[in-house]
Amino acid sequence: MKTRLTVLSILMLLLVAACAPVAGVEQPAQDAVPAEPVEEQTATEEPIKQGGIISRAITTEPSGLDPHGPPGSGQNILLPYIFDTLVYRDAGNNYHPFLAESWEVSDDGTAITFALREDVSFHDGTPMDADAVVFTFERFMELGSRSPVAGGLKDIAAVQALDDYTVQFTFDEPSAVFFGTISMPYAGIVSPTAVAKAGDTWAQQPVGTGPFMMADWDPGVAITLDRNPDYRWGPLDVENKAAPSIDQAVFKVIPDASTQLAAFQAGEADVVFVNQPAHLAKLEAIEDAQLTEAAINAVIYLGFNAGSAPFDDVLVRQALSHAVQKDDILQAVLSGVGKVSCTPLASTLPGYDESLCEHELGYDPVRAEELLAEAGYAKNDDGYWEKDGELLAATILTSTRAPNGDIAAMLQSQFGAVGIPIEILQLDARAAMGAATAGDYDIMVWRYGWNDADVLSIYLASERIGSTNRSHYSNPEVDELLAQAIHELDADARAQLYQQASILIMADAPWQPLYEPLDVIAVSGHAQDVVIGAMGRVLLNDAWVTEQ
Question: How many domains are contained in the chain?
Answer without folding.
Answer: 3
